[in-house]
Each structure stands twice: as C-alpha cells, then as structure tokens.
C-alpha cells in the first residue's frame, strides 16, 4: 500500500525544521560524516532520503522521527525535565539548586520535578493516543497511530 507521504514532503518537512533550528547543511555534513553535496541533494529533494540518514538527522536535530510522519513528537525526557525544573524555579515552587541548597531540599525538589516530568509524559502519551494528530496524518494511508500505554 503506497503512502501519499513521499520523499518530497519529507524533504520539505526536514527543510522546515532545519531552518527553524538554524542548523547549517555544513554542520549536518560534518556531524553525519556525509559530503555537503549529498546532504544538499537529500534536503532539497533531488535524491531519495535513505532511512539511516533520516534517522541520524532526526537524532542530530533532537526531533523525534514521529514528528515528520505524524506531525507531532514526543519531547525528549531530559528536555522536558529541564523545562519542568525551569518553570518550577520561575514560579517560586522550587528553589534554585546551587551548592548551598541543603541536601533534603535538593532531594525534595528533584523528586517533585521528576514526578511532574513523568506525569506530563504520561498525559502527553494519552493525548496522542486519543487521536490528537498533526498536519501530515490526513496524508497517510496506514491509519491511526498506536501508542503504548502502561
């Protein structure tokens, strides 16, 4: 069964993320060990994008490969944890954790941040599983995404 999600749409989505993240093709070439011209050909849609290049590039960009297929993504745990800690500190619900922070306060704050991060991840997974899809899904022929629940 063929998908309407073709190489041109994938290249277009990659270009948009690369532009948004302000990553140069030179950097991509260096980090992935691929010639600049080859990277350019993939990103500009002149050549088919091999799966290994796509997955390595998604990893380099710190974007879940699901984003390019489903139009959404699951934030990396460490990024979400850092965002939760930052928000808690800004809201005054968690002390800034410097070397002077007593150990019991540090443990309490880090436990709170870890529990909130886990809760957000679980809620986000449920949200995704309930059918909150992004812009590309209407172009897919293989149906609804499945998300593990646990």
Automatic annotation (TrEMBL):
<protein>
    <submittedName>
        <fullName>Helix-turn-helix domain-containing protein</fullName>
    </submittedName>
</protein>
<dbReference type="InterPro" id="IPR001387">
    <property type="entry name" value="Cro/C1-type_HTH"/>
</dbReference>
<feature type="domain" description="HTH cro/C1-type">
    <location>
        <begin position="14"/>
        <end position="68"/>
    </location>
</feature>
<dbReference type="InterPro" id="IPR010982">
    <property type="entry name" value="Lambda_DNA-bd_dom_sf"/>
</dbReference>
<dbReference type="Pfam" id="PF01381">
    <property type="entry name" value="HTH_3"/>
</dbReference>
